[in-house]
Amino acid sequence: MDFVDYVATVPNTKQQQMQVLNYTKLLCQSLQDHFKQYSIKSHNRSIVNALDKGDTSMVQYYEDRIQELKNGEGLYEYEIVEGKKYYKIVMVCPGDYRSKSVHAFVDKNNGNVYKSATFKSPAKGVRYNLLDESSREYVLANCDWSGSYLYQR
User: Fold this and answer.
1) Which residue among 7, 113, 123, 135 sits deepest, i.e. has the most Cβ atoms within 10 Å of its Cβ?
2) What percent of the chain has pLDDT over 70?
3) Residues of the domain holding 102
4) What is the per-residue pLDDT across 52-76, written as a single tens digit (0 to 9) for each?
5) Are 23 and 135 in contact, with CB atoms under 8 Å apart?
């Protein structure tokens, strides 16, 4: 590849990296939406269990938590931290200490999604690819806040 060919491919690379970033943002939004739905279902189950036991003392508490979730309060947030090679998806838990953990890594150049091995590095083995339409659609439809979709089966 000569210099002219290299220069011609640079815009495509930048455009592809922007696509990967946009799809990574969609993944973060899907993760937050899943956490919201999961939490609301959990509180609804708690209301049903309390009513089955004849205990109405906690019903208002659960209803208040559901309303907070619907208003966007108390949700886990997912932020993107850009590194040299990867976008790191970081789950930020609400509260006084705002604990953080790495949810996944996304390769900036090709859209490969990896489970995290540590806070600084991904696990081996590509789980999904955000640039592949069918893989992306599956991920966005089946991702969950806890990351179980990232385990190899």
Assistant:
1) 113
2) 92
3) 3-150
4) 998 888 999 999 999 999 999 989 9
5) no
Please state, in angstroms and rounded to a whole number, the distance separating the CA atoms of residues 10 and 68.
Answer: 46
Helix (H) or strand (E) holding 36: helix 3-52
Q: What is the spatial order of strands in the sheet that 86-92 belongs to?
A: 77-82, 86-92, 100-107, 112-115, 128-129
* Confidence tier at 152 by pLDDT (50, 70, 90): confident
pLDDT tens track for 107-141: 999 999 999 999 999 999 999 999 999 999 999 99
DSSP assigned state of 123: P
- Chain Cα centroid distance, residue 140: 9
Least confident of 20-24, 62-66, 149-153: 149-153
Distance, in Å, from the CA atom of 6 to the CA atom of 75, rounded to the nearest integer, reads 44
**Burial category of 146 from C-beta neighbours within 10 Å (exposed 0-12, middle 13-18, buried 19 and up):** middle
User: What domain count does the chain have?
Assistant: 1
